[in-house]
């Protein structure tokens, strides 16, 4: 391999888009993700966004324009149609993301093949399929997998437009469409697109008329994204000052590095995972210094995204799939480059052994680190983020059963996942009553969770009619109107959760409960041993020791009250 296939224009292209290695990788990754999608908790961001997914599409796009969520509309529009067919159950909600991720694996392989060679593409695809961050964020019902797919497509098209017949208008238009799609998937998209455009311009400048396709592709992308520039500018202004504190930049860099190597599967105590991953990163940087001439285009994209995310303080673990694909391709290219060049060059045996040793050390450390992440998955311990393990479904099922026994009890919660699972229980009860017990399709009907029933249950939580759903629960703002001296419920069950306690509605409700109710029981669920460390890394958010706390409050015996 000379200076990279994109420079020489001699990429090795396979006639098969789906070969046996790709098929095996897709089957393995897909099997885990479909299993995980039904096994692990629908976490807060997924549940919160689900309120948007079920809106009429025009109302939903208008809400995104006004900043109800810090995301552009492409994924929301796609999943809006998807859930109308497959429902809002965990599998129905997440299956679209799984399909996007599997397609992204194919395009990562094609991108590696177009930039370098077939083996590099296969290695990059395998790294992406096994990446700890991808194993969980890949099936999340958010834009992550769509961004992963579109960045892979753009990476492939960048190589195609640079290497082979760059003057063809079709490829220029395709690049512009893909670039605009990336920008419509996440507001970090313009940074990714800008870096790839910069790489293309540098490569094009080496050829006569080589920059024309990039000027045209850039103009197409700008024209297509221009209708959404106002929300983009407004969201960009909410990120605060760039790099206002070196401490926050260092913390962001640390979190991003950890997410790029171990995902959320290595807490501060899991040295057996992040320790080898850190050594892998050191080895990879050494290989990058040795072979930067070959890998510089992918390096510009990967390190450029890393730097932009750190300086803007926006690159947290959930957003790492915006550029984790190029990062995996960079690692694959450096390994493959070392193996091929070291075997072909006539250099001193000692020098070859040292370079081979660095490459093998980096590979061995990555394997050890990811095996450690696998141990954490199996044991369900030492995760840096516990959002997938929050037992919301079980907690809300128990709370609902106890509220039924109490008769007039009210469940109060604000966490999006708690509201999601409680509304799903209400909707599924309605489905069970409508479907005969011996109906063979009852499992599917229950799993898909009828969209209209779920949305109705969520709305009941907000307008104060939740208990009428048998019981469906209420938000703190809705229950405040009931907690008075005449119509107060006899029993109130509060479900308080990490990140959703220090809110004005909860503070007002807590004051009313302290005055008129007695705490009779408290149950704690899912301890977070790393809570103190998280408070140090992110002092703006309090991380309680227990993820979920359910309290039972009983009305004081105050007799007859006056208004």
How does this structure look, described?
- With 563 residues, the chain is mainly alpha-helical.
- The protein has 25 helices and 4 strands.
- The protein has a 4-stranded mixed β-sheet with strand order 1-2-4-3.
- The chain is globular, with a radius of gyration of 26 Å.
- The model is unreliable at 1-14 and 559-563 (pLDDT under 50).
Summed up:
The protein has 25 helices and four strands. It has 563 residues and is mostly helical.
Write the layout of secondary structure elements.
Blueprint lengths: L4 H4 L11 H20 L4 H10 L3 H9 L8 H13 L3 H26 L2 H13 L1 H6 L6 H20 L5 H15 L5 H16 L7 H14 L3 H9 L8 H17 L8 H20 L1 H20 L12 H21 L4 H31 L12 H15 L3 E4 L2 H19 L7 H7 L2 H13 L12 H4 L11 E7 L6 H13 E11 L3 H7 L8 E10 L8
Parallel strand pairs: 1-2
Antiparallel strand pairs: 2-4, 3-4
Helix pairs in contact: 2-6, 2-7, 3-20, 5-6, 6-7, 6-9, 7-17, 9-10, 9-11, 10-11, 10-12, 11-12, 11-16, 14-16, 15-16, 15-18, 16-17, 17-18, 19-20, 20-22
């Amino acid at each position: 391999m000379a200076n990279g296939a994109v420079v020489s224009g001699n990429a090795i292209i396979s006639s098969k888009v789906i070969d046996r290695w790709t098929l095996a990788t897709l089957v393995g990754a897909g099997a885990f993700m479909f299993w995980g999608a039904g096994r692990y908790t629908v976490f807060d961001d997924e549940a919160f966004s689900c309120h948007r997914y079920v809106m009429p599409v025009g109302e939903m796009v208008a809400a995104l324009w006004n900043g109800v969520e810090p995301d552009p509309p492409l994924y929301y529009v796609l999943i809006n149609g998807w859930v109308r067919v497959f429902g809002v159950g965990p599998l129905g909600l997440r299956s679209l993301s799984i399909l996007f991720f599997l397609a992204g694996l194919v395009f990562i392989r094609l991108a590696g093949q177009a930039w370098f060679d077939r083996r590099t593409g296969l290695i990059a695809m395998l790294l992406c399929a096994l990446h700890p961050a991808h194993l969980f964020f890949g099936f999340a019902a958010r834009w992550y997998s769509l961004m992963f797919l579109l960045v892979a497509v753009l990476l492939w098209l960048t190589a195609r437009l640079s290497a082979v017949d760059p003057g063809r208008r079709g490829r220029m238009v395709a690049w512009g469409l893909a670039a605009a799609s990336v920008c419509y998937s996440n507001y970090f998209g313009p940074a990714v697109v800008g870096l790839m455009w910069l790489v293309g311009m540098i490569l094009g400048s080496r050829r006569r008329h080589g920059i024309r396709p990039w000027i045209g592709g850039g103009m197409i992308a700008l024209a297509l994204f221009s209708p959404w520039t106002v929300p983009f500018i407004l969201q960009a202004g909410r990120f605060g000052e760039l790099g206002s504190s070196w401490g926050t930049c260092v913390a962001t860099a640390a979190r991003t590095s950890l997410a790029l190597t171990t995902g959320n599967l290595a807490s501060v105590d899991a040295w057996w995972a992040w320790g080898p991953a850190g050594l892998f990163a050191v080895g990879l940087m050494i290989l990058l210094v040795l072979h930067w001439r070959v890998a510089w285009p992918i390096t510009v994209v990967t390190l450029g995204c890393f730097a932009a995310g750190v300086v803007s303080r926006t690159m947290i673990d959930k957003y790492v799939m915006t550029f984790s694909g190029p990062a995996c391709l960079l690692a694959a290219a450096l390994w493959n480059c070392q193996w091929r060049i070291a075997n072909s060059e006539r250099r001193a045996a000692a020098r070859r052994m040292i370079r081979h040793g660095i490459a093998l050390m980096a590979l061995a450390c990555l394997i050890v680190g990811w095996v450690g992440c696998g141990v954490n998955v199996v044991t369900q311990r030492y995760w840096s983020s516990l959002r997938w393990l929050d037992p919301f479904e079980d907690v809300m099922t128990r709370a609902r059963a106890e509220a039924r026994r109490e008769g007039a009890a009210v469940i109060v919660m604000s966490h999006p996942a708690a509201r999601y699972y409680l509304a799903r229980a209400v909707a599924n009860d309605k489905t069970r009553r409508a479907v005969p017990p011996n109906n063979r399709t009852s499992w599917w009907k229950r799993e898909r969770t009828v969209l209209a029933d779920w949305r109705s249950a969520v709305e009941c939580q907000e307008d104060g009619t939740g208990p009428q759903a048998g019981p469906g629960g209420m938000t703190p703002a809705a229950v405040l109107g009931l907690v008075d001296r005449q119509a107060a419920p006899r029993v109130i069950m509060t479900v308080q959760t990490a990140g959703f306690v220090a809110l004005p509605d909860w503070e007002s409700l807590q004051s009313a409960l302290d005055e008129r109710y007695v705490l009779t029981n408290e149950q704690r669920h899912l301890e977070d041993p790393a809570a103190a460390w998280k408070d140090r890394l992110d002092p703006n958010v309090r991380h309680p020791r227990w993820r979920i706390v359910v309290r039972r409050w009983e009305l004081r015996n105050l007799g007859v009250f006056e208004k």
